[in-house]
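Our consortium's second objective concerns turning raw sequence data into structural hypotheses that experimental partners can test. To show how far this objective has progressed, the report includes one record in full. It was chosen at random from the queue rather than selected for favorable results. The single chain below, 186 residues long, was entered without modification.
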Amino acid sequence: MTSGALWALGRGTGITALVFLTISQALGIATRSGRRVAALPRFAVADVHRFAALAGTGLVALHLTLLFFDPYAQLRLVDFVVPFLAAYRPVWLGLGTLACDVLVVVAVSSLLRHRLGLRAFRAIHWVAYALWPVALVHALGAGTDSQRVWFLALAGGCAVVVAGALMWRLRADFVEYADTRTEARR
């Protein structure tokens, strides 16, 4: 495979991973609400959330693998674990490394959910709120397509989806907070 093909596939998998992680983030919030989303029952929303998270994680792994073999990116194994050491755009790639490290923690905690217990799982899962914006900033700073209109529109759309889901979650009538509201009225 040529260097140009590795670079193009690496970029494409990174962009697609951002879309899947956006879907996962928004549906993760929707799952906590207990409400149906687009006529899907709650269990289906949770299943699509898990699929999107798994697909996004797989795409991130492919993204890293392809760029590792691309001579232009000049990635070393340490760059996948320790942030801000990369030779190419160290700050932007460091943010990607940081997002990847957090993604690994969230993914492993998801796999060990039944052994960790619900409380520990939820506490670790809260870190996903930090993962997504760091990944977005990585894409905007490190991506060679970051100045193209189509990519800015895609990134902006992803930001609108996650911001909308977060605003919905922070509303007082979010179902998760129903017990708190009921107790406050008493």
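The partners drew two points from this record. DSSP finds eight helices and no strands in the chain. Residues 180-185 have pLDDT under 50 and may be disordered. Both points have been shared with the crystallography group to help prioritize constructs.
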